Amino acid sequence: MSFSTLFSDKLIPYTGKELRPHFALSQLGLRGSGIAAFLGPCRVETAELVDWEDRLENERIEARLMVHFIGEFFGVSLREAVLAQRLLVATVAESLNEKLSPGKPILRTGNDLHLGDRKLSVSIVTSSPVSQLLHLGINIDPTGAPVSAVGLQEFFPDQAHITEWVRQILQAFSKEMEGVEWACTKVRPVV
């Protein structure tokens, strides 16, 4: 299976409306199942939230700058997309923990990442009529966040290093997805 990835240099604000079918194709040129990443501010009002738990609590999402991963998966179930989301989040946590001091690990709880009591990420998966959709936002500058938050600016010296790290995450996740496909096709059936 070919799994596409793309990093866009465009600065794109994320409002929640970008979590829609074919956004990555129509706005960024990503074809087929895959994940695109870009940097941009984030402000998702309650009415745009996909997560009913957060909506019922009148939550919102905001940060001055985030890296956004937008995934679209065709021909898979919602459960498979949620598993892909967890794999992406785990890949991010593993990568950051390799860069940080051992005494302050990034902890993953489900699809959330934290450093101590400060939140690093937001993420959701949902269905569209033609695909499963994923958003993972990782704070770079968490200013404006409605919760105690941390950003990648604490881990990297500048935006160029963050951009390089994002490209590495895309490559690592693509390799994982291709490995999953190979694991499904390389085995001898048992009868």
Explain this structure:
This protein is of the alpha+beta class. It has a single domain (4-185), classed as Bira Bifunctional Protein, Domain 2 (BirA Bifunctional Protein, domain 2, 2-Layer Sandwich), CATH 3.30.930. The protein contains 4 helices and 8 strands; from the N terminus they run βαβαβαβββββα. It has helices at residues 23-28, 52-56, 78-99, 159-185, and strands at residues 4-11, 34-44, 61-73, 106-109, 112-115, 118-119, 121-127, 132-141. Strands 1-2-3-8-7 form a 5-stranded mixed β-sheet. A 3-stranded antiparallel β-sheet has the order 4-5-6, with helices on one face. The mean pLDDT is 94.
* Main sheet: strands, sense, barrel: 5 strands, mixed
- Which spans have pLDDT < 50 for at least 5 consecutive residues? none
How many domain modules? 1
CATH topology (level 3) name: BirA Bifunctional Protein, domain 2
Looking at CATH, the homologous superfamily is: Bira Bifunctional Protein, Domain 2
Mean pLDDT, to the nearest integer, reads 94
The proportion of residues forming helix, as a percent range, comes to: 25-40%
Structure annotation, total helices:
4
Indicate the CATH architecture: 2-Layer Sandwich
How big a fraction of the residues is strand? 25-35%
Biggest sheet strand order reads: 1-2-3-8-7
Overall strand count: 8
